TrEMBL record:
It holds the Pfam family Flavin_Reduct. Residues 18-173 form the Flavin reductase like domain. GO terms for molecular function: FMN binding; oxidoreductase activity, acting on the CH-NH group of donors, NAD or NADP as acceptor. Gene3D superfamilies: Electron Transport, Fmn-binding Protein, Chain A. The lineage of its organism: Bacteria, Pseudomonadati, Pseudomonadota, Alphaproteobacteria, Rhodobacterales. PANTHER family: BLR2425 PROTEIN, FLAVIN REDUCTASE LIKE DOMAIN-CONTAINING PROTEIN. It comes from Roseovarius azorensis. This is NADH-FMN oxidoreductase RutF, flavin reductase (DIM6/NTAB) family.
Length: 203
């Protein structure tokens, strides 16, 4: 099968998200200028650079009470900071609860029954139970083609890792089993891993 996106795919559901999988989930916590906390998951998320460490996430929809975007991007515009919380299998239901189209006044931490902890380097909350969290300062917001497509880039200024996830000096994802996003309404969990060395690479 071949299709041009501008012509449509003719399938019951858009296959694009099912092709680009699995995708890590960035559970983005933000705080608005009035001090209200927000938490929402984004599957257009990834790390993009080592030195300095940098991440990105993309927001592709808008809410009526936020104009051209959603709460996360609107809050980051106001404060210039955000935190990326990593989603473990154990947190999947709480993560899903925070994905709803809640009003801007709703604290998704409270709505999902999640404890929060203050970040160390930025004025923002993080998910206490997350296996890892990345505190970030905004570097740029890029508007992409499309009505509500924004990519947010941030420099990581603080890194939290749960101590029990560090085994023999390695952050071991099998200790918490990251949740990943597939297409449609599908998710998956990382339960196994293997190593591959690049040509010429030493152990």
């Amino acid at each position: 099968m071949f299709y041009r996106p501008e012509d449509g795919h003719g399938l019951p559901h858009n296959p694009f998200n099912a092709i680009v999988t699995p995708r890590p989930i960035g559970w983005i916590s933000t705080r608005d200028a009035q001090g209200r906390d927000n938490l929402a998951p984004y599957s257009f998320f990834n790390a993009v650079a080592y030195v300095p460490p940098q991440v990105m996430f993309a927001s592709t929809a808008a809410k009526p009470d936020r104009g051209d975007t959603k709460d996360s991007v609107a809050n980051i515009r106001e404060t210039g900071v955000f935190c990326v919380n990593i989603v473990s299998e154990a947190l999947r239901d709480a993560m899903n609860q925070t994905s709803g189209p809640w009003d801007r006044e709703v604290d998704e931490f409270a709505h999902a029954g999640l404890d929060k902890t203050e970040c160390e380097t930025i004025p923002c909350a993080r998910v206490s139970a997350a296996p890892a969290s990345l505190e970030c300062r905004l570097t740029q917001i890029v508007q992409l083609p499309g009505a509500a497509n924004y990519v947010v880039f941030g420099e990581v200024t603080g890194v939290h890792m749960q101590d029990d996830c560090i085994i023999d000096g390695v952050f071991d994802v099998l200790r918490f089993n990251p949740l990943t996003r597939l297409g449609y309404q599908d998710y998956s969990v990382i339960r196994e891993k293997f190593a591959l060395r690049r040509p010429g690479e030493k152990a």
